TrEMBL record:
<dbReference type="InterPro" id="IPR036259">
    <property type="entry name" value="MFS_trans_sf"/>
</dbReference>
<keyword id="KW-1133">Transmembrane helix</keyword>
<feature type="domain" description="Major facilitator superfamily (MFS) profile">
    <location>
        <begin position="230"/>
        <end position="411"/>
    </location>
</feature>
<feature type="transmembrane region" description="Helical">
    <location>
        <begin position="102"/>
        <end position="123"/>
    </location>
</feature>
<dbReference type="InterPro" id="IPR050495">
    <property type="entry name" value="ATG22/LtaA_families"/>
</dbReference>
<dbReference type="InterPro" id="IPR020846">
    <property type="entry name" value="MFS_dom"/>
</dbReference>
<feature type="transmembrane region" description="Helical">
    <location>
        <begin position="266"/>
        <end position="284"/>
    </location>
</feature>
<feature type="transmembrane region" description="Helical">
    <location>
        <begin position="51"/>
        <end position="72"/>
    </location>
</feature>
<dbReference type="InterPro" id="IPR024671">
    <property type="entry name" value="Atg22-like"/>
</dbReference>
<dbReference type="GO" id="GO:0022857">
    <property type="term" value="F:transmembrane transporter activity"/>
</dbReference>
<feature type="transmembrane region" description="Helical">
    <location>
        <begin position="144"/>
        <end position="163"/>
    </location>
</feature>
<feature type="transmembrane region" description="Helical">
    <location>
        <begin position="175"/>
        <end position="195"/>
    </location>
</feature>
<dbReference type="Pfam" id="PF11700">
    <property type="entry name" value="ATG22"/>
</dbReference>
<protein>
    <submittedName>
        <fullName>MFS transporter, UMF1 family</fullName>
    </submittedName>
</protein>
<keyword id="KW-0472">Membrane</keyword>
<dbReference type="GO" id="GO:0005886">
    <property type="term" value="C:plasma membrane"/>
</dbReference>
<feature type="transmembrane region" description="Helical">
    <location>
        <begin position="79"/>
        <end position="96"/>
    </location>
</feature>
């Protein structure tokens, strides 16, 4: 890898600590077992789903606007930095959350996700600035792959303290809170190469009334996307299938607690997933070069469709291990190849604008999935039925993606 490519990949190494600690494992368990323990189980799960939907709605609204502004020279890095520090600050604020503060926890969670997801809008679009088109599948997959390994280091440190808090003379609750500070520090340190080495090379020159003209260009960009029928069809398909993927990521730990998987088992299983996902993410990148990114995305959709069906029949920890393994085989690959597939078919000088729409499709989709799970779970009182309901998203997404032509002319 070049220096720019390595620095870009390292940001995945950095922010994946947030994915592991806040999105996937420690925070959901902390919320479920401590913060919201006085709430009925199905209600705490539903409220968590609603919180995810609110957070992703905010990102979805901001994504295309910010992406259009970031197309101007020098803006992308500034916006990336702002959202990075927003995420760092609010992740640290989980330290102040105590038992019964479930509403405060969800509010902090919403702003932390806003910072994390907002920075990722610009991080994704920097892919066209750091590498060449023929290397995008590999570099994008490497980002996800190394991100899985990077996320495990602060996580392992955190769970050692949580399981053995006497090692540093604190309580389990204090050790849990400390994990959020560890995550913020890790995220910050390994973001420094990205801040130092990566610059915007594909851009539009600054002009007067930039904000006003950004909204005009936003409208023009939307018209352009709809004119490229294959790109627009891909985005609609992506809207559905990536919704299912992100919903499983966000709701898996809460679901595991609902079916009786212990907190310690959940942390071990989700840690194992990171190690399993690492080679599979790289494998997806290699296989995409041989068979095409399109075929490998379809493989990922197929695996996730099976996962959604399988979730309905889950009752034991062993079954959750199997589900975790299946998720690990395709989670990084389907996300990485979707990102690089899109990056190869869009105008490079308007990457931020188009990735703004890429993210709005992804984030609006991420509202639907948790909302669907929350609604079905609340109405039926059955978390397994709620999770299985997302099979609808994979079926629609897969059907539409199969309509996308095998070869799309690069713009």
């Amino acid at each position: 890898m070049t220096k720019k490519e390595r620095s870009w990949v390292l940001y995945d190494w950095a922010n994946s600590a947030f994915s592991m600690t806040v999105l996937s494992v420690i925070l959901p368990i902390f919320y479920k077992d401590v913060v919201a323990k006085e709430l009925p189980s199905h209600l705490s799960t539903a409220y968590w789903g609603y919180g995810n939907s609110i957070a992703t709605l905010l990102v979805a609204i901001l994504a295309p606007i910010l992406g259009t502004i970031a197309a101007y020279k020098g803006y992308k890095k500034k916006l990336f930095t702002f959202f990075l520090f927003l995420g760092l600050i609010f992740t640290s604020l989980f330290f102040i959350v105590n038992e019964g503060n479930w509403l405060l926890c969800i509010i902090i969670y919403i702003f932390a996700i806003l910072g994390f997801s907002g920075s990722n809008i610009f991080y994704d679009s920097f892919l066209v600035d750091v590498t060449t088109e023929d290397r995008m599948d590999w570099i994008s997959s490497a980002g996800f792959g190394y991100g899985y390994i990077g996320s495990t280091i602060p996580f392992i440190i955190s769970i050692i303290f949580i399981m053995k808090p006497d090692l540093i003379g604190i309580t389990t609750l204090q050790a849990t809170k400390l994990s959020f500070l560890i995550t913020s520090v890790w995220w910050f340190i390994f973001s420094l190469p990205m801040l130092k080495d990566v610059e915007q090379t594909q851009f539009i020159e600054p002009e007067k009334n930039a904000i006003k003209k950004s909204f005009i260009r936003l409208y023009d960009t939307f018209k352009n996307i709809t004119q490229y029928k294959s790109i627009f069809l891909f985005l609609i398909a992506y809207f559905f299938y990536i919704d299912g993927v992100s919903t499983i990521i966000k709701m898996a730990t809460i679901f595991g607690r609902d079916i009786g998987v212990s907190s310690n088992d959940l942390m071990i299983i989700l840690l194992a997933i990171q190690f399993i996902a690492f080679p599979f993410a790289l494998l997806f990148g290699k296989l995409a070069k041989k068979y095409s990114a399109r075929k490998m995305i379809l493989v990922g959709i197929g695996v996730y469709s099976f996962i959604a069906i399988y979730a309905y029949f889950m009752h034991t920890t062993i079954q959750f291990w199997i589900l975790g393994f299946l998720v690990a085989t395709s989670q990084g690959g389907i996300q990485a190849l979707s990102r690089s597939y899109f990056g190869k078919i869009i105008p490079k000088d308007k990457a931020s604008e188009f990735f703004g729409f890429y993210n709005i499709f992804g984030k609006f989709a991420s509202i639907l999935g948790p909302l669907l799970v929350a609604f079905v779970t609340q109405v039926t009182g059955n978390s397994r039925l709620g999770v299985s309901s997302i099979i609808i998203l994979f079926l629609i997404g897969g059907f539409l993606f199969m309509k996308v032509p095998e070869h799309i002319e690069t713009i």
